[in-house]
Model the fold of this input.
Amino acid sequence: MTTELKSELPWAYATKPGFKGEAPGLYFRYFKTEAEAKKSLAWMKRKKRWHGPIERRPGECYRLGWVM
Done:
């Protein structure tokens, strides 16, 4: 028996400026938990890369998978 799992990734931060409401996957990096987002954001800060604040964006991104 196989079932499809759908997991929401509600936490995100912007990786480039200029988001105007279209194609959020090109502007945001998504995570399952806030702790994962904070860890990734810390890496961005260490590398001195542009980023926006962490925000909760439910319903925008999902991870699909299969369980056998």
Q: What stands out?
A: The chain has one domain: 3-67. The mean pLDDT is 90.
